[in-house]
Design brief:
130 residues, Substrate Binding Domain Of Dnak, Chain:A, Domain 2, 5 helices, elongated
Length: 130
């Protein structure tokens, strides 16, 4: 019983601290001068998040501007595209799987493919507006 109490207390004490990754994340890296793999991974993830947010805005605008039938087709296309994106980027990152570069390669792919999808959605939005 005493061992469990000590182990639980030690686990709680360790859990209350800030992990090295979380501490690093609190100080955003300078992505124009990323030097470590961790910084490059974090910057690539940020670029993907920004691309994803922009794509979601374009998707929402397009969705709002089409009728119910087109909305259903758009939803089906977007779901298929998401499956493609994930499979494609898994393939792109396969060459570095398990290595420290894998998150950067995967995030870089996700950002690039997502930016292309955003261009497609914006083009469809322009067509729908005309």
């Amino acid at each position: 019983m005493m061992r469990r109490t000590i182990a639980l207390a030690a686990g709680l004490a360790l859990g209350a601290g800030v992990s090295p990754l979380a501490a690093q994340r609190e100080k955003a890296p300078d992505c124009d001068d990323a030097r470590t793999q961790l910084e490059m991974n974090l910057c690539a993830a940020d670029q993907y998040r920004a691309a994803d947010a922009e794509m979601n805005r374009a998707y929402a605008q397009l969705r709002a501007g089409v009728d119910a039938g087109e909305r259903a087709a758009l939803l089906a296309a977007q779901r298929a595209w998401l499956r493609f994106r994930d499979a494609h980027c898994a393939f792109e990152a396969a060459g570095v799987r398990g290595g420290s570069m894998e998150p950067m390669v995967r995030s870089g792919c996700l950002a690039a493919v997502t930016r292309e999808r955003t261009r497609q959605l914006k083009s469809a939005l322009e067509t729908a507006d005309n």
